[in-house]
Design a protein that fits this description.
Keywords: Plasmid. The N and C termini lie far apart (about 35 Å). It is elongated, with a radius of gyration of 14 Å. It contains three helices and no strands. It has one domain.
Length: about 80
């Protein structure tokens, strides 16, 4: 894979994290209790930290995180 390929993979990872963050925000806004709202806020921060920890040069880590976040996003959208 070329450098361009890994950059595309990383862009997909970032886009997926952004979409998942957006879903967390929606769920936080729809929360019925302050505790539930806080839960979604904490998920946003954890996701942000996790995304930042992914090595830009580790294709397998990028793929694994992207796949996991896509699955979670799909589950939350049901």
């Amino acid at each position: 894979m070329s450098t361009d390929d890994i950059n595309v993979l990383y862009d997909v990872l970032c886009d997926t994290a952004t979409a998942l963050t957006g879903r967390y925000i929606e769920l936080g806004r729809a929360a019925k209790t302050p505790e539930e709202e806080e839960y979604w806020s904490s998920r946003i921060m954890a996701l942000r930290n996790e995304r930042r920890s992914v090595d830009h040069n580790d294709r397998e880590a990028i793929r694994e995180h992207t796949r996991r976040w896509v699955r979670e996003l799909e589950e939350l959208e049901r």
